[in-house]
Phage/plasmid primase, P4 family, C-terminal domain protein (Desulfomonile tiedjei), 618 residues
Amino acid sequence: MNGFLDKRPQQWPGLVELIKEKSGTPRQSQEDGETGKKRGKSSRVSRGHLSIAESIPEDTRNDILFREACSLREKGLTKDRILIMIRAIDRERCNPPINDDVEIETLVNSAWSYKEKKERELLDLTAPNRNTSDMGNASRMAGHFGDDIRFSSNFGWLTWEGARWGRDNRSKVQGFAKRVPGLVYREAANAATQDEREALARHAMQSECASRINAMIQLLPSEPGISVPHDVFDTNPWLFNVQNGTIDLRTAKKHEHRRSDMITKISPVTYDPDAQCPRWLQFLQELKQEQRVIEFIQRSLGYSLSGNTSEQVWFFLYGTGNNGKGVLIDTISYVIGDYAVATDAATFLDNQKGIRNDLARLRGARFVSAQEPSPNVRFDPSCLKSFTGQDTITARFLHQEFFEFKPEAKLFFSANHKPGVIDNSLGFWRRVRMIPFTTQFAGKAKDPNLREKLKAEASGILNWLIEGCLKWQQDGLKVPKEVHDAIYEYRENTDILSDFLTTRCVIGKDTLKIEPVKRLYDEYLKYCDENRIRKPFSRPKFNQNIEERQGVKQRRETNCRFWSGIGLRCDYPDELVNSNTYPVEQRCPEVCAISGTCEHPHLCASGFCNDFREILRS
């Protein structure tokens, strides 16, 4: 008889059953190769090419139809004939059917051009690199399992989990590798000569050794299509992965999970467009915010579903304890799932040193929450600017290589205390969106089971977020007055030079002047000495801070540099204009926009309204 019989059914059940007589005539197998199950009759619609279930669910529909189209192509059918048959399968077996000729035609065209190696190629003795070596085994592994394996030098092994690409600690990859010797046994059973059969059988047995398994895995990244750069994953900012498919946030339409989307993240929520969230809506009303603030929160959180960062802002949720901030953050983090990352508040605070593992963790995240910093800390302005400014950030995990990424995350920083800010620049303050939380839940008003109730409404809350995302795409964030007022107050209270400028200076007209430049700094040092300020700004830092004030510049005349747009009160005792910092003029555009009148026409005339609209454009 032609062939080998392996008497280890527990290890290779059904894999090496004799299927050819000596004459080479195929003999019908009574068991399905790898499962050992009895073969059933081919379905009428599949013509014996694939065993298709009586009812194909929506989440696997496109994948099954694609595989059937590939099988029909390999049988030699024309593209038109394949299109007819796939339409028939869709109509008779899919629940629900696609019923879209364009989508079905696209699927068939993809299958027609599909060029990757198929499983039957593994049994083709004429295929390249099917030799008795570690390289041959790596080629077999790539050909048979390569669709489900990727390797990145930054992230290691990733395997397809049916809904996303997941990081693997080699356990799954090793499992694939351990199945390769069984493929070699199959090749031995189908070899043309006795010498080939014996050589392949010996190689199959040797391939079961741990050293050969490890060698195969080590060589696998060099196989075509296995190694990919780290930046091919999660590149589409508009796709959001859920349990039953992938949602396009531009249309709120869902499609099946696809390997080609290269998504590594997933939400624990099942998308149900009809789901409601009454308890969530009640919770938002219990925050006792104005309706326009709630709508702003919805647009902001909806914006956070996407990987788009065009707004270049971060959100500061401020208020004393028991006011709903934590419930809101925890609920959204649960609904968003892998797209949400909680990080220590210190990530965005000053005095961070060493390797930034904390930043490396944020690659690919869309919703980053940081909560409850210690009192008496300060923000790190450069970190916040880079994180929200669409800059490329370099980071690495401990003992790993550096990599670059552009943050996609929207930061939601919540605190009972306001960290200090030493940066008074436009570049910092235009990015802040501060949402005040003033209600306290205590006693009977506090629901101890609220978090669990909200988790039960996760599908409905996801719909609320998607609605917010669509509203943001249409109208922008539309920052309300309450948010602007909170930013104004925060900036006023954190400006280190505010009191000095209020008590010693006037700002607001081009005719104001201090000559020479050094005189203003000398006045500042005198102020610090009188007020027992131990660590005044250095002269360069002081000058930089002053130049960030609207309308204040250093100028030169002949051989002398002087300040323009600012004066000392001792030089201008009768000067009425005292827009000494930004607070008054920053109120102005909101008064104009909301009431239609301006309380500070002289500031409007000098252009401060337009300047501040640029600072807090919505």
